[in-house]
């Protein structure tokens, strides 16, 4: 799988961004633009990144995602998005923690192949978040 496949939509009250293949800066920018637009349009405040079929990106792309998340927070104002990242392995999980860790651990979580747990966490009220264990 050499190309990146991106799809962004919503399932119920959750924005779902599916990334497959080798990511590029252009794909990350397009993904963030679509997520921000859909969040503004639907007022949804939860996003699930499905990275189960994502190939490990270069470090520069991980840092780009970090910057894009900061810009998204500014763009959406005080309303931040709860983010679940669905991964297949520890390498992608590690990179996701670097990319999204700036948001604070109550705003994001990494899930190992368990979409059901990710969706339950996103749909749970933030005050109920146990915040310690990962799936």
Describe what this molecule looks like in 3D:
This protein has about 140 residues and is of the alpha/beta class. It has one domain: 2-Layer Sandwich (Transcription Regulator spoIIAA), CATH 3.30.750.24. Helices cover about 40% and strands about 25% of the residues. The protein has a five-stranded mixed β-sheet with strand order 1-2-3-4-5, sandwiched between helices. Helix 2 packs across helix 3 (about 90-100). The relative contact order is 0.16. Mean pLDDT is about 85; it is low at about 130-135.
What distinguishing features does this structure have?
single chain, 135 residues, alpha/beta, Transcription Regulator spoIIAA, five-stranded mixed β-sheet, 26% strand, disordered C terminus
